[in-house]
Fold this protein.
Amino acid sequence: MTDTDDSPPADPRRRIVYVQLDERKVVRRKPEVEHERAVAIFDLLEDNCFDPVGFGDDGPFNLHLSAEEGRLTFDIRTQDGLELTRVLLPLSPFKTIVRDYFMVCESYYQAIRRSTPAQIEALDMGRRGLHNEGSELLRERLAGKIAVDHTTARRIFTLVCVLHIRG
């Protein structure tokens, strides 16, 4: 455990083993967004700390994420698919940071094609800063409902951003 990550000790029951995003309203995403989504899911499944309050001993967990009617839904199930609980969070606190994050990401992807390394690095630092801010907001909103470490929150925040893309 590092000074920047206050994750609880690793427990094979307190982790996500399957992630599904609600793709019913999916639009064609840019290749960069698809890549970020795929990497976030892969990395999340490889290493995460996920402890729904009151259900930690029922894990490991399947997580179904959706965003609808102004709410982010964490549909948490057992590894066998039995529904355990749903955690609902209002999406409104995330709207500004997600919008800003998308703007910086777009600038970053454009910069990769035609800017100097210093400009790319500056945009990447801004992108990472907004990503950290969104991750911390997510952790705050999940407090008392689901305990996640910083790394898990970052990966889930990426998926929250992907869910914001609508046609």
Summary: The two ends are 41 Å apart (CA to CA). The beta strands are 16-21, 50-52, 61-68, 71-78, 83-90, 146-148. The chain has one domain: 16-163. The chain is about 45% helix and 20% strand.
